Amino acid sequence: MTDSTVKIVVVYQSLLGIYGDQGNAKVLHKRLAWRGIDSEVAFVEPGEALPADGAVYLLGGGEDNAQTTAVRELKKDGSLFTALDAGAVLFAVCAGYQICGHTFTIGENDEVREGLGLLDVTTRRGTRRAVGEILTRWTKPDGTTSLITGFENHGGFTTLGPDAAPLAQVEVGVGNADDGTEGAVQGRVIGTYPHGPVLARNPELADHVLSLALGRDLEPLPGPQAEHDGLRAERIAFVRR
Amino acid sequence: MVGDAAALASRVMGKGSGASIRGQLLTRIDPDAFAELVKGRRIVAVSGTNGKTTSTHFVAAALRQALGRDAARLVHNADGANLHYGIASALAKARKADLAVLETDERVVADLLEHGRPEVLVLLNFSRDQLDRNHEIKFLGRDWRNALERAGASGPVVIANADDPLVTWAAEKARKVIWVDTATTWNADAAMCPACGAMLTRAGASGAWDCPDCDLTRHPADYAVEGAAIRLPDGRLVEPRLNVPGSFNVANAAMALAATAELGVDADTALIGFRTVKAPAGRFSIGTFGDTRARLILSKNPAGWAESLPLLATDPCVLMIDSVAADGKDVSWLWDVEFEQLRGKHVVASGPRAYDLAVRLTYAEVEHEVIVDLDAALKSVAGKADPVDVIATYTPFQKLLKTAGLR
Question: Are strands B201-203 and B176-181 parallel, antiparallel or unpaired?
């Protein structure tokens, strides 16, 4: 490891990792390695000190009680906030997305819990559980659009405040549920519902996260693209039929 | 403890033979049939996420061994149909069988406890499975716990996996528990205390776990898996020498030994029975597909794949993934399984979700090709290994059994 090694931090995999979301770290790590860029993946569990020098922090999906524990531990630790102030990227999926907001609810009695306050969103229990394939249209920084394919499984509906912008528009599925939007972006914090894991099914989104973290564009990766194209074509056709 | 077959037969004969379970023959299974059919029999039930079918086959084989020529008194839903209908269907075909060994889906345990009053309930493990349907496995654990509490003094003796915190929490409401140290290695689905939500602490690889905030803790084991052997309560170490592979099946055998001991079957007799189990409901069976012979391994969830991948002995090997309801619609779990261990082999990715697997294998840097069609995938490996190892999720596994005439 050198000073230039890119650190990818998987935050509390044992709490927020029940839907394969650690795959997002594998994808980021390999897409850097295939470009000759050194990176390391750090798995940090509650009770362990979170590194403050990560380039990308990843949060995944999990159960209600795990969300509460994760918020408590992250606030106690503090390093995630330090790292974000220093320019790190946070990519949060599903339950991890929800805890980035101001509040979310847990349980059948809708107990309101404080989130991390990193995204101007609030989440409450929805009228139905959103379970199934989701397809959204993401407008990339250059103004062009790309489809995001994934599998959503959440009971919460999310409302965006003025400081957060949606990540994408829903074509098939539920997403944030109120207004046809999916996910939220605020500065260098990205929240989204789809698993898949989402970065494995959407390599352009993976490279966008890496570009944000490195502060520069990355050249395309033709090698694994054929495999991604096969998967995306199959999933997009499945969800549209 | 009753050892020989005749003694067991006479003991078992004592209650529930014939009369109480006689009823009018059903031409079809009506909704109340389950409750009626499970009444009046002596029942050993087996539940949990993984290992139900094989463990149930172990228990049934041991009881048959002990019953000898009275083995017809035993009924067993051997095909793995473990929901209300499957159980009722098996029982309806054996109205005079007074001894039932029932593989029981996790969601059916509470109903079976209420209506069937099993004598012995084996609780193997809990891990995430089909999350598109069972959003939180803790709900299932709570269901078991409440049902055991309601059953109270008339409830079963529970054979419980001491390594599993959620099983432990559920089993603590049973009137009597036999604890088994199963040497479980998969604990990715048991980070938090099911009782209070605190983070569990774990002592290295020993399986010992504890809740720092409440009373829940690992119980001292009555039976223990030690490598390929099983330590009995009397201190004796027995070698199961099973005819099904995998360390997880030694754990299943330990659970089954504890269960059959409750019915008076001695360990040596039980083990003779266990060794007759070779392809429970088609698992580990060898099928012929044109010019290809294949050993068929079923895996349904990340814990199951973690156990079965090390069994892959051939190069090439074939992995088949589907995602209809019976498989779980979300295949994200592919990323929680260490496919990296297959580096150096050629993997044929097959089934409707072969492309998901192909992307996973790309990132694991495992050499592979995609052949979505199951038959074509098997044809492609003809002559390259005999038999070639195949791991499949539920739906393709059932298709292979059917194609090979194994069911």
Answer: unpaired
Do B318 and B289 meet the contact criterion of CB atoms below 8 Å apart? no
Give the Cβ contact number of residue B187 at 10 Å.
17
What whole-number distance in Å separates Cα of residue B81 and Cα of residue B69?
A: 26
**How far is the CA of A204 from the CAs of A91, A144, A198, A208, B11, in angstroms?**
14, 12, 11, 6, 68
**B344, B365 contact by CB (below 8 A):** no
This model of the complex carries an ipTM of: 0.96
Q: Does domain B285-403 have CATH number 3.90.190.20?
A: yes
C-alpha distances out from residue A29 to A26, A33, A131, B288, B334, Å: 5, 6, 29, 41, 17
Q: What is the C-alpha to C-alpha distance for residues B191 and B189, in angstroms, rounded to an integer? A: 6
Angstroms from A76 CA to nearest CA on chain B: 15
* CA gap B61, B79 in Å, rounded: 14
- When CB atoms are compared, the residue of A14, A23, A153 closest to B188 is A14
Contacts of B135 (CB under 8 A, 6+ apart): A63, A129, A153, A155
The one-character DSSP state at B347 is: E
Determine the 3-state secondary structure of A45 from DSSP. Answer: coil
DSSP class per residue in B196-220: T-PBPEEEGGGTEEE-SSSS-BPPP
Q: In what order do the strands lie in the sheet with A89-93?
A: A39-44, A6-11, A56-59, A89-93, A189-192, A184-186
Fold classification of A6-240 (topology level):
Rossmann fold (3.40.50)
Eight-class DSSP state of B323: -
Residue given tokens 């193997």 in the structure block: B124
Give the Cα separation of B89 and A29 in Å (integer).
Answer: 51
* CA neighbours closer than 13 Å in the CB half-sphere of residue B106: 26
The pLDDT tens digits along chain B (407 residues) read: 333 444 454 444 333 333 233 333 443 556 678 999 999 999 999 999 999 999 999 999 999 999 999 999 999 999 999 999 999 999 999 989 999 999 999 999 999 999 999 999 999 999 888 777 777 778 899 999 999 999 999 999 999 999 999 999 999 999 999 999 999 888 878 888 999 988 899 887 667 899 999 999 999 999 999 999 999 999 999 999 999 999 999 999 999 999 999 999 999 999 999 999 999 999 999 999 999 999 999 999 999 999 999 999 999 999 999 999 889 999 999 999 999 999 999 999 999 999 999 999 999 999 999 999 999 999 999 999 999 999 999 999 999 999 999 98
Q: Which residues contact B39 (CB under 8 A, 6 or more apart)?
A: B20, B21, B115, B116
CB contacts, 8 Å: B138 with chain A:
63
- CATH superfamily, domain at B5-278: Mur-like, catalytic domain (3.40.1190.10)
Write the residue in A151, A196, A231 that is nearest to B358 by C-beta. A231
Is B364 within 8 Å of B340 (Cβ atoms)? yes
Query: How does DSSP assign A163-221, residue by residue?
Result: T-B-SEEEEES-TTBSSSEE-EEETTEEEE--BS-HHHH-HHHHHHHHHHHHTS-----
Domain extents in chain B: 5-278, 285-403
Chain A residues whose CB is inside 8 A of the B335 CB are 20-23, 26, 197, 200
Residue (of A132, A118, A116, A2) closest to A69 by Cα position: A116
Of A19, A132, A230, the CB nearest to B358: A230
